[in-house]
Amino acid sequence: MNTNTEKQRIFSGIQPSGNITLGNYLGALRHFPELQDDYECLYCIVDMHTLTVRQDPELLKERSYSLLSLYMACGLDPDRSILFVQSHVHQHAELSWILGCYTYMGELNRMTQFKDKSAKHADNINAGLYTYPVLMAADILLYQSRFVPIGNDQKQHLELARDIAIRFNKLYGETFTVPEPLISKQGARIMSLQEPDRKMSKSDTNSGNFVLVTEEPDSIMKKFKRAVTDSGSEVRFDPENKPGISNLLNIYATVKGITTEDAEKEFAGSRYGDFKMAVGSAVCDCLAPIREKYELLMSDRAQLDGILGRNAERAREIAEITKKDVYRRVGFIL
Ligand code: TRP
Q1: Looking at residues 271-298, what average pLDDT do you find?
Q2: Choice among 115, 202, 222, 225 that is catalytic
Q3: Which member of 28, 79, 142, 330 has the greatest number of CB atoms within 10 A?
Q4: Is 117 a catalytic residue?
Q5: Mean local confidence (pLDDT), 262-269
Q6: Partners of 180 in the beta sheet?
Q7: Of the candidates 38, 39, 16, 43, which has an alpha carbon nearest to the alpha carbon of residue 28?
Q8: What is the torsion angle, in degrees rounded to the nearest 10, for the CA atoms of residue 253, residue 257, residue 261 and residue 265?
Q9: Rg, the chain, Cα only
Protein backbone atom coordinates (compact mmCIF):
# COMPACT_ATOMS: atom_id res chain seq x y z
CA MET A 1 0.00 0.00 0.00
CA ASN A 2 0.97 3.60 -0.42
CA THR A 3 2.97 4.61 2.60
CA ASN A 4 3.21 8.20 1.46
CA THR A 5 0.62 9.78 3.68
CA GLU A 6 1.00 13.28 2.28
CA LYS A 7 -0.46 13.13 -1.20
CA GLN A 8 -2.34 10.57 -3.22
CA ARG A 9 -0.83 9.58 -6.52
CA ILE A 10 -2.02 10.16 -10.02
CA PHE A 11 -0.66 8.26 -12.98
CA SER A 12 -1.38 8.79 -16.62
CA GLY A 13 0.33 7.84 -19.83
CA ILE A 14 0.25 8.92 -23.43
CA GLN A 15 1.76 6.96 -26.30
CA PRO A 16 4.39 8.77 -28.34
CA SER A 17 2.87 7.23 -31.46
CA GLY A 18 1.78 10.38 -33.17
CA ASN A 19 1.59 14.05 -32.63
CA ILE A 20 -0.75 15.33 -29.98
CA THR A 21 -4.02 16.66 -31.32
CA LEU A 22 -6.30 19.40 -30.17
CA GLY A 23 -8.60 16.58 -29.04
CA ASN A 24 -5.93 15.10 -26.77
CA TYR A 25 -5.17 18.54 -25.41
CA LEU A 26 -8.71 19.63 -24.65
CA GLY A 27 -9.79 16.20 -23.43
CA ALA A 28 -6.82 15.29 -21.27
CA LEU A 29 -3.57 17.23 -21.26
CA ARG A 30 -5.16 20.56 -20.44
CA HIS A 31 -6.34 19.23 -17.09
CA PHE A 32 -3.05 17.67 -16.06
CA PRO A 33 -1.31 20.79 -14.63
CA GLU A 34 -4.12 21.67 -12.23
CA LEU A 35 -3.74 18.27 -10.57
CA GLN A 36 -0.12 18.97 -9.62
CA ASP A 37 -1.08 20.96 -6.54
CA ASP A 38 -3.20 18.34 -4.87
CA TYR A 39 -1.55 15.11 -5.94
CA GLU A 40 1.79 13.55 -6.56
CA CYS A 41 1.61 13.15 -10.31
CA LEU A 42 3.39 10.81 -12.67
CA TYR A 43 3.00 11.41 -16.38
CA CYS A 44 4.53 8.71 -18.47
CA ILE A 45 5.59 8.60 -22.09
CA VAL A 46 4.57 5.01 -22.77
CA ASP A 47 7.01 4.11 -25.53
CA MET A 48 6.79 0.37 -24.84
CA HIS A 49 3.09 0.39 -25.65
CA THR A 50 3.72 1.88 -29.09
CA LEU A 51 5.59 -1.22 -30.31
CA THR A 52 2.31 -3.11 -30.48
CA VAL A 53 2.03 -1.54 -33.91
CA ARG A 54 5.08 -0.99 -36.13
CA GLN A 55 7.00 2.20 -35.47
CA ASP A 56 9.83 3.93 -37.27
CA PRO A 57 12.71 3.97 -34.72
CA GLU A 58 13.93 7.49 -35.46
CA LEU A 59 10.42 8.86 -35.45
CA LEU A 60 9.59 7.11 -32.17
CA LYS A 61 12.58 8.74 -30.50
CA GLU A 62 11.63 12.13 -31.91
CA ARG A 63 8.06 11.75 -30.75
CA SER A 64 9.13 10.80 -27.23
CA TYR A 65 11.11 14.03 -26.91
CA SER A 66 8.24 15.84 -28.49
CA LEU A 67 5.73 14.50 -25.98
CA LEU A 68 7.97 15.47 -23.07
CA SER A 69 8.27 18.99 -24.46
CA LEU A 70 4.56 19.15 -24.94
CA TYR A 71 3.84 17.98 -21.39
CA MET A 72 6.02 20.82 -20.18
CA ALA A 73 4.69 23.39 -22.67
CA CYS A 74 1.21 22.61 -21.36
CA GLY A 75 2.28 23.47 -17.84
CA LEU A 76 3.62 20.28 -16.28
CA ASP A 77 6.65 20.99 -14.14
CA PRO A 78 9.34 18.26 -14.09
CA ASP A 79 10.43 19.35 -10.62
CA ARG A 80 6.98 18.80 -9.19
CA SER A 81 5.51 16.02 -11.32
CA ILE A 82 7.45 13.01 -12.49
CA LEU A 83 7.66 13.16 -16.28
CA PHE A 84 9.38 10.07 -17.60
CA VAL A 85 9.79 7.47 -20.31
CA GLN A 86 8.35 4.02 -19.63
CA SER A 87 11.32 2.08 -21.03
CA HIS A 88 13.67 3.91 -18.64
CA VAL A 89 12.03 2.17 -15.71
CA HIS A 90 12.68 -1.57 -16.00
CA GLN A 91 10.13 -2.37 -13.29
CA HIS A 92 7.27 -1.87 -15.79
CA ALA A 93 8.35 -4.88 -17.83
CA GLU A 94 9.11 -6.91 -14.72
CA LEU A 95 5.76 -6.33 -13.06
CA SER A 96 3.98 -6.79 -16.35
CA TRP A 97 5.23 -10.38 -16.59
CA ILE A 98 3.98 -11.19 -13.13
CA LEU A 99 0.59 -9.56 -13.59
CA GLY A 100 0.20 -11.46 -16.86
CA CYS A 101 0.15 -14.62 -14.80
CA TYR A 102 -2.82 -13.26 -12.87
CA THR A 103 -4.82 -12.22 -15.92
CA TYR A 104 -7.11 -14.60 -17.74
CA MET A 105 -7.20 -14.94 -21.49
CA GLY A 106 -10.94 -14.63 -21.26
CA GLU A 107 -10.50 -11.16 -19.82
CA LEU A 108 -8.10 -10.08 -22.55
CA ASN A 109 -10.38 -11.55 -25.22
CA ARG A 110 -13.09 -9.15 -24.12
CA MET A 111 -11.03 -5.98 -24.63
CA THR A 112 -12.71 -3.97 -27.35
CA GLN A 113 -9.52 -2.10 -28.24
CA PHE A 114 -7.78 -5.39 -28.99
CA LYS A 115 -10.63 -6.41 -31.24
CA ASP A 116 -10.60 -3.05 -33.03
CA LYS A 117 -6.85 -2.92 -33.42
CA SER A 118 -6.57 -6.47 -34.67
CA ALA A 119 -9.18 -5.69 -37.29
CA LYS A 120 -7.22 -2.59 -38.29
CA HIS A 121 -3.80 -4.29 -38.35
CA ALA A 122 -4.84 -7.73 -39.55
CA ASP A 123 -1.32 -8.46 -40.83
CA ASN A 124 0.25 -7.88 -37.41
CA ILE A 125 -1.88 -9.27 -34.61
CA ASN A 126 1.00 -9.76 -32.21
CA ALA A 127 1.07 -11.00 -28.63
CA GLY A 128 1.97 -7.52 -27.40
CA LEU A 129 -1.24 -6.13 -28.79
CA TYR A 130 -3.05 -8.80 -26.84
CA THR A 131 -1.25 -8.32 -23.51
CA TYR A 132 -1.14 -4.52 -23.82
CA PRO A 133 -3.69 -4.02 -21.00
CA VAL A 134 -1.46 -6.03 -18.63
CA LEU A 135 1.43 -3.65 -19.25
CA MET A 136 -0.94 -0.77 -18.65
CA ALA A 137 -2.02 -2.34 -15.36
CA ALA A 138 1.65 -2.64 -14.38
CA ASP A 139 2.20 1.06 -15.21
CA ILE A 140 -0.56 2.06 -12.86
CA LEU A 141 -0.12 -0.45 -10.03
CA LEU A 142 3.65 0.00 -9.72
CA TYR A 143 3.11 3.47 -8.29
CA GLN A 144 0.18 2.66 -6.01
CA SER A 145 -1.78 5.14 -8.09
CA ARG A 146 -5.08 6.25 -6.66
CA PHE A 147 -6.46 8.09 -9.69
CA VAL A 148 -5.88 7.67 -13.40
CA PRO A 149 -6.96 10.43 -15.79
CA ILE A 150 -8.10 8.67 -18.95
CA GLY A 151 -10.42 9.02 -21.88
CA ASN A 152 -13.54 6.92 -22.22
CA ASP A 153 -11.78 4.53 -24.57
CA GLN A 154 -9.46 3.44 -21.76
CA LYS A 155 -12.13 2.72 -19.17
CA GLN A 156 -12.23 -0.97 -19.93
CA HIS A 157 -8.46 -1.25 -19.51
CA LEU A 158 -8.61 0.52 -16.17
CA GLU A 159 -11.39 -1.79 -15.05
CA LEU A 160 -9.11 -4.72 -15.82
CA ALA A 161 -6.24 -3.13 -13.86
CA ARG A 162 -8.60 -2.87 -10.90
CA ASP A 163 -9.63 -6.50 -11.25
CA ILE A 164 -6.02 -7.64 -11.37
CA ALA A 165 -5.15 -5.55 -8.29
CA ILE A 166 -8.10 -6.90 -6.33
CA ARG A 167 -7.30 -10.47 -7.35
CA PHE A 168 -3.65 -10.15 -6.34
CA ASN A 169 -4.55 -8.48 -3.04
CA LYS A 170 -6.94 -11.32 -2.22
CA LEU A 171 -4.29 -13.93 -2.87
CA TYR A 172 -1.31 -12.26 -1.19
CA GLY A 173 -2.69 -9.55 1.10
CA GLU A 174 -2.88 -5.81 0.50
CA THR A 175 -0.22 -5.16 -2.11
CA PHE A 176 -1.71 -2.70 -4.58
CA THR A 177 -3.82 0.43 -4.26
CA VAL A 178 -6.94 -0.17 -6.35
CA PRO A 179 -7.03 2.71 -8.87
CA GLU A 180 -10.00 4.76 -9.97
CA PRO A 181 -10.58 6.53 -13.28
CA LEU A 182 -10.64 10.31 -13.50
CA ILE A 183 -12.68 11.23 -16.54
CA SER A 184 -13.08 14.89 -17.42
CA LYS A 185 -16.52 16.13 -18.32
CA GLN A 186 -16.40 19.08 -20.65
CA GLY A 187 -14.47 18.82 -23.87
CA ALA A 188 -13.72 15.19 -23.28
CA ARG A 189 -14.81 14.21 -26.74
CA ILE A 190 -13.55 16.30 -29.62
CA MET A 191 -14.56 14.79 -32.92
CA SER A 192 -12.88 14.66 -36.32
CA LEU A 193 -13.23 17.83 -38.41
CA GLN A 194 -14.07 15.91 -41.57
CA GLU A 195 -16.00 12.98 -40.09
CA PRO A 196 -17.63 14.34 -36.93
CA ASP A 197 -19.11 10.97 -36.03
CA ARG A 198 -15.58 9.77 -35.19
CA LYS A 199 -13.21 10.86 -32.45
CA MET A 200 -10.37 13.19 -33.47
CA SER A 201 -7.39 10.83 -33.61
CA LYS A 202 -3.68 11.40 -34.02
CA SER A 203 -3.30 8.16 -35.96
CA ASP A 204 -5.82 9.18 -38.59
CA THR A 205 -4.49 8.91 -42.14
CA ASN A 206 -6.38 11.97 -43.34
CA SER A 207 -4.64 14.95 -41.75
CA GLY A 208 -7.67 17.13 -42.44
CA ASN A 209 -9.42 15.28 -39.64
CA PHE A 210 -7.27 16.62 -36.85
CA VAL A 211 -5.46 19.72 -35.66
CA LEU A 212 -2.15 19.29 -33.89
CA VAL A 213 -1.26 21.26 -30.79
CA THR A 214 1.99 22.31 -32.46
CA GLU A 215 0.47 23.16 -35.84
CA GLU A 216 1.10 26.50 -37.59
CA PRO A 217 -1.83 28.94 -37.49
CA ASP A 218 -2.15 29.05 -41.30
CA SER A 219 -2.61 25.33 -41.46
CA ILE A 220 -5.05 25.35 -38.54
CA MET A 221 -7.18 28.00 -40.22
CA LYS A 222 -7.23 26.01 -43.47
CA LYS A 223 -8.49 22.94 -41.67
CA PHE A 224 -11.28 24.84 -39.95
CA LYS A 225 -12.23 26.44 -43.24
CA ARG A 226 -12.63 22.95 -44.72
CA ALA A 227 -14.31 21.41 -41.65
CA VAL A 228 -17.57 19.75 -42.62
CA THR A 229 -20.73 21.45 -41.52
CA ASP A 230 -24.26 20.14 -41.79
CA SER A 231 -27.22 20.84 -43.96
CA GLY A 232 -29.20 23.96 -43.06
CA SER A 233 -27.56 27.22 -42.13
CA GLU A 234 -28.20 27.63 -38.44
CA VAL A 235 -25.38 27.48 -35.88
CA ARG A 236 -27.10 25.33 -33.31
CA PHE A 237 -25.88 22.76 -30.74
CA ASP A 238 -27.55 19.51 -31.72
CA PRO A 239 -25.04 16.63 -31.78
CA GLU A 240 -27.62 14.20 -33.14
CA ASN A 241 -28.70 16.15 -36.21
CA LYS A 242 -25.82 18.60 -36.55
CA PRO A 243 -22.67 16.68 -35.60
CA GLY A 244 -20.28 18.95 -37.51
CA ILE A 245 -21.56 22.25 -36.18
CA SER A 246 -21.97 20.84 -32.68
CA ASN A 247 -18.38 19.63 -32.66
CA LEU A 248 -17.19 23.10 -33.67
CA LEU A 249 -19.35 24.69 -30.98
CA ASN A 250 -17.93 22.29 -28.44
CA ILE A 251 -14.36 23.12 -29.51
CA TYR A 252 -15.08 26.84 -29.31
CA ALA A 253 -16.76 26.59 -25.93
CA THR A 254 -13.98 24.45 -24.47
CA VAL A 255 -11.21 26.69 -25.76
CA LYS A 256 -12.97 29.81 -24.48
CA GLY A 257 -14.04 28.22 -21.21
CA ILE A 258 -17.74 28.92 -21.79
CA THR A 259 -20.78 26.68 -22.13
CA THR A 260 -22.01 25.42 -25.49
CA GLU A 261 -25.24 27.36 -24.86
CA ASP A 262 -23.30 30.60 -24.58
CA ALA A 263 -21.27 29.73 -27.67
CA GLU A 264 -24.51 29.05 -29.54
CA LYS A 265 -25.86 32.46 -28.50
CA GLU A 266 -22.70 34.18 -29.62
CA PHE A 267 -23.10 32.81 -33.14
CA ALA A 268 -26.84 33.08 -33.51
CA GLY A 269 -27.42 34.43 -37.02
CA SER A 270 -23.78 33.92 -38.11
CA ARG A 271 -23.01 32.27 -41.41
CA TYR A 272 -21.25 28.89 -41.32
CA GLY A 273 -18.16 30.35 -43.00
CA ASP A 274 -17.73 33.15 -40.47
CA PHE A 275 -18.43 30.82 -37.60
CA LYS A 276 -15.75 28.37 -38.73
CA MET A 277 -13.18 31.16 -39.01
CA ALA A 278 -14.03 32.35 -35.50
CA VAL A 279 -13.51 28.84 -34.12
CA GLY A 280 -10.22 28.55 -36.01
CA SER A 281 -8.95 31.87 -34.59
CA ALA A 282 -9.93 30.93 -31.06
CA VAL A 283 -8.03 27.65 -31.42
CA CYS A 284 -4.95 29.45 -32.81
CA ASP A 285 -4.99 31.91 -29.89
CA CYS A 286 -5.24 29.08 -27.40
CA LEU A 287 -2.41 27.05 -28.95
CA ALA A 288 0.05 29.85 -29.82
CA PRO A 289 1.71 30.16 -26.39
CA ILE A 290 1.99 26.39 -26.10
CA ARG A 291 3.67 26.12 -29.49
CA GLU A 292 6.14 28.82 -28.58
CA LYS A 293 7.21 27.08 -25.38
CA TYR A 294 7.29 23.75 -27.18
CA GLU A 295 9.68 24.99 -29.89
CA LEU A 296 12.01 26.41 -27.27
CA LEU A 297 12.08 23.17 -25.27
CA MET A 298 12.63 21.03 -28.37
CA SER A 299 15.67 23.08 -29.33
CA ASP A 300 17.65 21.87 -26.31
CA ARG A 301 18.01 18.07 -26.33
CA ALA A 302 20.65 18.05 -23.60
CA GLN A 303 18.21 19.70 -21.26
CA LEU A 304 15.47 17.21 -22.18
CA ASP A 305 17.84 14.29 -21.59
CA GLY A 306 18.74 15.70 -18.20
CA ILE A 307 15.10 15.97 -17.21
CA LEU A 308 14.35 12.43 -18.38
CA GLY A 309 17.36 11.05 -16.51
CA ARG A 310 16.47 12.71 -13.23
CA ASN A 311 12.79 11.85 -13.46
CA ALA A 312 13.41 8.20 -14.38
CA GLU A 313 15.49 7.91 -11.25
CA ARG A 314 12.65 9.22 -9.10
CA ALA A 315 10.20 6.86 -10.81
CA ARG A 316 12.49 3.85 -10.36
CA GLU A 317 12.77 4.54 -6.65
CA ILE A 318 9.01 4.37 -6.17
CA ALA A 319 8.55 1.46 -8.57
CA GLU A 320 11.24 -0.63 -6.91
CA ILE A 321 9.40 -0.57 -3.59
CA THR A 322 6.29 -2.12 -5.14
CA LYS A 323 8.26 -4.55 -7.27
CA LYS A 324 10.26 -5.84 -4.30
CA ASP A 325 7.09 -6.28 -2.29
CA VAL A 326 5.52 -8.28 -5.12
CA TYR A 327 8.64 -10.41 -5.61
CA ARG A 328 8.69 -11.18 -1.91
CA ARG A 329 5.01 -12.06 -1.79
CA VAL A 330 5.12 -14.46 -4.75
CA GLY A 331 8.16 -16.23 -3.30
CA PHE A 332 11.12 -14.96 -5.31
CA ILE A 333 14.42 -14.90 -3.42
CA LEU A 334 15.39 -11.29 -2.81
N1 TRP B 1 -3.38 2.83 -23.17
C2 TRP B 1 -3.34 4.27 -23.07
C3 TRP B 1 -3.77 4.88 -24.41
O4 TRP B 1 -3.52 4.32 -25.44
C5 TRP B 1 -1.96 4.75 -22.71
C6 TRP B 1 -1.53 4.23 -21.40
C7 TRP B 1 -0.58 3.29 -21.17
C8 TRP B 1 -2.02 4.63 -20.13
N9 TRP B 1 -0.44 3.07 -19.86
C10 TRP B 1 -1.29 3.89 -19.18
C11 TRP B 1 -2.98 5.55 -19.73
C12 TRP B 1 -1.54 4.02 -17.82
C13 TRP B 1 -3.23 5.69 -18.36
C14 TRP B 1 -2.51 4.94 -17.42
O15 TRP B 1 -4.30 5.96 -24.41
Answers
A1: 97
A2: 202
A3: 142
A4: yes
A5: 95
A6: 147
A7: 43
A8: -80
A9: 21
The number of CA neighbours under 13 Å toward the Cβ of 30 is: 21
- Do 9-182+301-330 and 207-295 come out as alike in CATH topology? no
The finding on whether 11 has its CB within 6 A of some atom of ligand 1 is: yes
pLDDT in the model for residue 5: 53
- For the chain, the straight-line distance linking the first and the last C-alpha, in angstroms and rounded, comes to 19
The residue among 195 and 186 whose pLDDT is bigger is 195
Mention every residue, 6+ apart, whose C-beta is less than 8 A from residue 3.
Answer: none
pLDDT band at 160 (very low <50, low <70, confident <90, very high): very high
Domain boundaries of the chain, sorted by first residue:
9-182+301-330, 207-295
Pairing label, strands 180-182, 9-14 = unpaired
Give the integer Cα–Cα distance in Å for 262 and 14: 32
pLDDT tens-digit map of 199-253:
898 778 899 999 999 999 999 999 999 999 998 899 999 999 999 999 999 999 9
Pair type for strands 180-182 and 147-149: parallel
> CA 37, CA 287: separation in Å to the nearest integer?
23
Residue 199 bears catalytic tag: yes
pLDDT tens figures, 122-149:
999 999 999 999 999 999 999 999 999 9
The three-class DSSP label of residue 29 is helix
Say which amino acid occupies 318: I
CA angle 233, 236, 240 (to 5 degrees): 105
Q: Tell me the average pLDDT across 246-267.
A: 95
CATH of domain 207-295: 1.10.240.10
Domain 9-182+301-330 - what CATH class?
Answer: alpha beta
Closest CA to 259 of 277, 237, 274: 237
Nearest to 279 by CA among 26, 32, 34, 31: 26
202 is known as an active-site residue = yes
Strands lying side by side in the sheet with 40-45: 82-85, 40-45, 9-14, 147-149, 180-182
Catalytic residue among 7, 120, 170, 199: 199
pLDDT at 2: 46
Mutate to test the pocket of ligand 1, among 45, 46, 141, 201 (most ligand atoms within 8 A of CB): 46
